[in-house]
Write a structure and sequence with these properties.
Layout: H1 10-27, H2 35-53, H3 57-66, H4 69-97, H5 101-109, H6 117-148, H7 150-163, H8 171-191, H9 194-211
Helix pairs in contact: 1-2, 2-6, 4-9, 6-7, 6-8, 6-9, 7-8, 8-9
Length: about 220
């Protein structure tokens, strides 16, 4: 059964997202899939469900491409730079205040495992970064906002985005997810552009994990 407005199956899809992502952050990989392949598979599965149930989703993306595309790219890069500066400042402050911060930040980068930087970069650029924005902002936040109102939908989506990271047991990762969820959720609430959000997310991901990592 297809649900054109996407509202019907959202709670089922959200439940599936929790079942997929909580074990990912808890186990960080298996004998068959490392963290990055597992993450990618989760995103593909969830987007498959979204595109199946929400027939308007593809049209939403197409229309986004048609309207002020270059401006959205520029703003996306600028917003990624601002978020990086926020994290750069936060990295310094948290290491100064919390004795555990440095070790926990180091543990986040241990998610890399044996994966090459090239593979991580390609997966972030092609699937993970775009997929997270399409799912969490383009589907979850959009549908919850239609159902409960713009602000409640924004906070619910950001809260769920933060919640799935709790299973990692890493307070710095949870804090990072909270900040990112609020930041990208607010941008989407104000601008309503998935292209802008995707550019911001992808550029920030690659900057933080590959080009300019926070390793103290």
């Amino acid at each position: 059964m297809r649900i054109g407005n996407g509202k019907g199956p959202i709670f089922v899809i959200l439940s599936i997202s929790l079942l997929l992502f909580i074990p990912l952050f808890f186990l960080k990989g298996t004998a068959f899939l490392d963290f990055w392949w597992w993450f990618t598979a989760n995103v593909v599965i969830l987007l498959g469900l979204v595109f199946y149930f929400d027939r308007n989703f593809s049209l939403l993306i197409i229309n986004d491409f048609k309207n002020k595309f270059v401006i959205k790219i520029v703003i996306g890069f600028a917003s990624a730079a601002i978020l990086y500066l926020i994290f750069f400042t936060g990295d310094f402050i948290t290491r100064w205040i919390f004795a555990f911060a440095q070790d926990e930040i180091f543990n986040i980068y241990r998610f890399k495992g044996d994966a090459s930087l090239l593979r991580i970069t390609l997966l972030m650029f092609l699937i993970i970064g775009p997929g997270e924005e399409l799912f969490w902002r383009g589907y979850v936040q959009r549908v919850l906002s239609k159902k409960y109102g713009s602000a409640p939908g924004f906070f619910l989506a950001a809260g769920l985005y933060t919640f799935i990271h709790i299973s990692s047991g890493n307070p710095m990762l949870v804090l990072a997810a909270f900040v990112c969820g609020i930041y990208w959720g607010w941008i989407y609430m104000r601008k309503g552009s998935l292209i802008l959000n995707i550019v911001s997310h992808v550029v920030w991901d690659i900057a933080v994990f590959v080009v300019f990592p926070f390793k103290g």
